[in-house]
């Protein structure tokens, strides 16, 4: 008996020692609330692309148009609040839409109605959940298609690509003074798979834990402090990389002049054959990526129309008219500038832009989230974004792959040439739904 007791004491000591050796800047298993919940693998329930949901939900067209409309409204408000509108910038409105979609499940009363109406008045919560699941999982899964399969020629399993991917990092950080309902956590697991943490904001290592959990999307320490009285803040991130479907060669690149807001700049222009888009207000091109289900849309306002004025009117009607103008049978010669936009060093708060986009009470004391918590005085303190980094060059988007010296197949001679040599809007949009994932503006290159 004494030997058994001694053995148990030794085992307990080992366990305590191992726990003590854990990194205090990592969230513990107990603080990762989303860890213990899993989704159903039945695609008829989850509409998860990874589980074989190759067909979108019946409400997907309504969802796509409604969410795109919301994202464009958010973009206009985001741009309007920029202090320097000539500074090139990019953000990922799809991440905000996905986070709001999850929060709609936790909201009650007028708060739930407000979120649902902002995302789409003709959508139910079930519609939003199913379509969000399909959209997000498809974005992340398509670039991985084929990974793990056996190549017929080599007989080896194909590995997941490190150069073509889309990744979402959607995080909810609850203060440990709040309870979080299991029904909300299960809904998150079933449709969204966001990271949900609960910990004491006043803990000595709280800031380090948050910063470390976001390190896959930034090398910066984003937060310097947390307010120990806050209830919940969210942090959104997105990252992608891909090659072009139609490659450039070095012979396709030449110097040219870009007429930026601060004067003419000498930049590299890439020449290719692309599909033209145009309305009475602007024209541009659409260019496809290689593996991700995304295409790049570049839109340049007409001569005499400022970028600021065009953005203020860039609504869903203009967006749809641009998409409808595409003639896939006709190509133009497109000259596109290389450009690069760095991520902001600190997370950007979205509350003001979201409030102006229809979420009037979301960040006030009047919100109701009784489907998230029993805690009184619960509120959302902020939704932050880690702004994306983006480089568009001859290799692709955020890609550093080598390009060939000369083109193997000559470019087509076309009746029209479009040179993107003035400030413009760019969007990365989903091929299937046309939902924007990134939206940005380029002025000073």
Summing up helix and strand content along with how strands pair, one would put the structural category as alpha+beta
The CATH class assignment of the largest domain is Alpha Beta
CATH architecture of the largest domain: 2-Layer Sandwich
User: Overall 3D geometry?
Assistant: globular
Q: Bin the helical content.
A: 25-40%
**How does the major sheet shape up?**
9 strands, mixed
- CATH-level-4 superfamily name of the largest domain: Antithrombin, subunit I, domain 2
Strand content: 15-25%
Mean of the pLDDT scores? 92
Description:
With 445 residues, the chain is of the alpha+beta class. The chain folds into 2 domains: 33-142 and 163-241 and 343-385, Antithrombin, Chain I, domain 2; 243-341 and 390-442, Alpha-1-antitrypsin, domain 1 (Roll). Helix content is 29%, strand content 25%. The chain has helices spanning 2-20, 43-46, 60-80, 93-106, 109-119, 125-142, 182-192, 206-213, 307-312, 316-324, 351-356; strands at residues 89-91, 165-175, 195-199, 232-243, 253-260, 263-278, 282-288, 294-301, 331-337, 339-341, 348-349, 380-385, 390-392, 396-397, 417-419, 424-430, 436-442. Strands 1, 5, 6, 7, 8, 9, 15, 16 and 17 form a 9-stranded mixed β-sheet that branches. Strands 2, 3, 4, 11, 12 and 14 form a 6-stranded mixed β-sheet that branches. A two-stranded antiparallel sheet has the order 10-13. Helix 4 packs antiparallel against helix 7 (182-192). The longest helix is centred in the N-terminal third of the chain and has 21 residues, at 60-80. The termini are far apart.
